[in-house]
Design goal:
Elements lengths: L3 E7 L13 H11 L3 E6 L1 H4 L2 H12 L5 E3 L1 E2 L14 H8 L4 E3 L1 H4 L5 H14 L3 E4 L3 H13 L5 E4 L7 H10 L3 E4 L8 H9 L4 E2 L10 H8 L5 H16 L15 H8 L1 H8 L7 E8 L12 H11 L1 E8 H5 L2 H13 L6 E6 L5 H7 L9 E6 L1 H4 L9 H10 L3 E6 L7 H10 L5 E8 L2 H10 L3 E4 L9 H9 L4 E2 L9 H10 L4 H15 L1 H9 L1
Parallel strand pairs: 1-2, 2-3, 4-5, 5-6, 6-7, 7-8, 8-9, 10-11, 11-12, 12-13, 13-14, 14-15, 15-16, 16-17
Helix pairs in contact: 10-23, 12-13, 13-23, 20-21, 21-22, 24-25
Length: about 525
């Protein structure tokens, strides 16, 4: 099985990024670390320069490197910056290019029939792939608009958000058979398998969106997806090569192809073992799960049986979760549902956070008289931004006093720059409550400096990795600056496939002691019930 990444990039960006590969050599080294043989790349010059110059720089940067293939920028033929429609196929073949990128915002053109009608007709006839970055509902609307006019256009939707776009793209996939999807941010648990069940494997392509995002997540997710080996091989690279074949075969790559398992073996014994399959020696603990359906996203594994099946597949021994309805509605009712439907049914696999809704503070405070209401509850959960109540709202006080007195862990949603639960709010809170083991959910996503500062200043603060894991360098940075003993794995299951987070941890540039701390040891130290379950497993 050969991995051919449909979306990676390198080159000097105009603005600071979380992570960059400045040269082809740097990107190739990253690919080697993850066992990826080839990549269709978008050079930074495609965004920073005029389309003709950007395309020329991309081709030059990839020349002599058969493992990297440059996609060229689409531009307006009316300005003379792009060939006329009848010249396009020959123009691309002459340059050895087999795909085009549409970047309408960067190059300020309308991606419509008026501008590209004749071009799209030729692209549909020749089967020339068009790559288009998806960043929300408006981009799916644009794809729908294009495909209504040109239903035979081969269009590859790239990098749609990790929060779940199935309700947006499935109607399009049903109607337009030439629409394809990349899996670089398709983190939805069971998303790959359900996609293959409905559409077959030929319309999903392996991608990483590296170096901005962590390559390890998509690699591990595809390696361990519950699909056939033929489907896995198709997604890994065969589909992309087929889509590019209109322009002839790609340049031959000499030597043995990289493989993810071989690459993991070079990294460490733990990385190889965990990537190979569930391990009793490494019983993973997910400290940030959810439970039940959720209004804003389709969750194919929202039932407790399905969650536990995912945990079995990924080697997750225990998940600590809170009920979605406790965040969006009646927390008293939802906490009871979690106990009855989850903690009672799977006492050795599911533990619970008692979610505190400040709008029900009076009922919540009454519950503290005989707390916890079920032995499966092992911590408290806050979601200040959803509840519109900042962490210093007095309606949290009773919960915080209890947690501080009993050293009960609190998992709180945190986000960079948030007035409800940003790093500044966490800092003030922990100055008042130094004995609460406080898990910063999502690690103040985006405000990495703030999250690290809080962790360094407060020994009871922990960096929880849900969503943050995907940011390419952040796990290694957290380990280097805060210490691996202060980091916990989390996935938002049933939102995200745990293999995305696990893969990011395995392939990060840290040692096995740090990996073990993050995957399970720290959780066992913080949660006595977790320690007991791991000890008896």
């Amino acid at each position: 099985m050969r991995f051919f990444d449909c979306h990676a990039s390198f080159g000097l960006p105009t603005q600071a990024e979380w992570n960059v590969c400045l040269t082809a050599a740097e990107l190739l080294a990253l690919m080697d670390r993850h066992g990826i043989e080839r990549a269709l790349v978008r050079h930074a010059a495609l965004d920073t320069e005029s389309p003709p110059l950007g395309g020329a720089l991309a081709l030059e940067a990839c020349s002599g490197t058969p493992r990297l293939e440059a996609a060229l920028p689409l531009s307006t033929p009316q300005t003379g910056e792009f060939p006329l429609a009848h010249e396009l196929a020959a123009w691309l073949r002459e340059r050895g290019a087999r795909a085009l990128w549409a970047r309408p915002e960067q190059h300020r053109y309308r991606l419509d029939t008026l501008t590209f009608g004749e071009t799209f007709e030729v692209m549909a006839e020749e089967r020339i792939p068009l790559l288009y970055q998806v960043n929300g509902l408006g981009d799916w609307d644009k794809i729908a608009e294009i495909l209504r006019e040109f239903p035979d256009l081969t269009l590859l939707a790239i990098g749609h958000g990790c929060w779940g776009d199935d309700r947006l793209f499935r109607p399009l996939m049903d109607r337009y058979p030439r629409l394809h999807l990349d899996m670089s941010r398709y983190e939805l648990d069971q998303g790959i398998a359900r996609f293959v069940d409905r559409y077959g494997p030929r319309r999903l392509l392996f991608g990483t969106s590296a170096p901005r995002w962590n390559m390890g997540g998509p690699v591990a997710a595809l390696m361990r997806a519950p699909i056939t080996e033929d489907a896995r091989a198709a997604i890994a690279g065969e589909n992309l090569e087929r889509l590019l074949s209109w322009g002839g075969p790609g340049e031959a790559v000499e030597g043995e192809a990289p493989r993810p398992l071989t690459a993991a073996a070079r990294i460490s014994p733990l990385a190889e073992a965990v990537l190979s399959g569930p391990q009793t020696d490494h019983p993973i603990v997910d400290t940030h799960g959810h439970f039940g359906p959720y209004g804003k996203i389709w969750l194919p594994s929202q039932e407790p049986d399905q969650m536990v099946a995912t945990m079995d597949r990924c080697g997750v021994r225990v998940t600590i979760c809170s009920h979605h309805t406790a965040i969006t509605g009646d927390a008293v009712l939802a906490n009871r549902w979690l106990a009855e439907q989850g903690l009672e049914r799977y006492p050795d696999r599911l533990l619970g956070y008692y979610c505190w809704n400040p709008h029900q503070a009076r009922e919540m405070e009454a519950a503290l008289e005989d707390f916890p209401p079920h032995p499966g509850f092992v911590g408290l959960k806050f979601h200040p931004s959803s509840h519109g109540a900042p962490l210093d709202d007095p309606r949290y006080a009773a919960a915080l006093e209890y947690a501080n007195a009993h050293r009960w862990p609190v998992l709180s949603h945190t986000w960079g720059g948030s007035p409800w639960d940003g790093a500044a709010q966490v800092d003030r809170l922990l100055s008042r409550y130094p004995d609460i083991p406080f898990l910063m959910g999502h690690s103040c996503f985006g405000d990495w400096d703030g999250a690290i500062r809080v962790a360094k200043e407060h020994p009871n603060a922990y960096l929880e990795l849900t969503a943050a894991y995907a940011v390419a360098p952040i796990i290694a940075r957290f380990v280097a600056e805060a210490g691996s003993e202060r980091i916990l794995m989390g996935t938002d299951l049933p939102w995200f496939d745990p293999m995305f987070c696990i893969g990011c941890i395995l392939f990060s540039e840290i040692d096995d002691a740090a990996r073990a701390n993050i995957l399970y040891r720290n959780a066992a130290r913080l949660f006595p019930s977790v320690s007991a379950l791991l000890h008896h497993s």
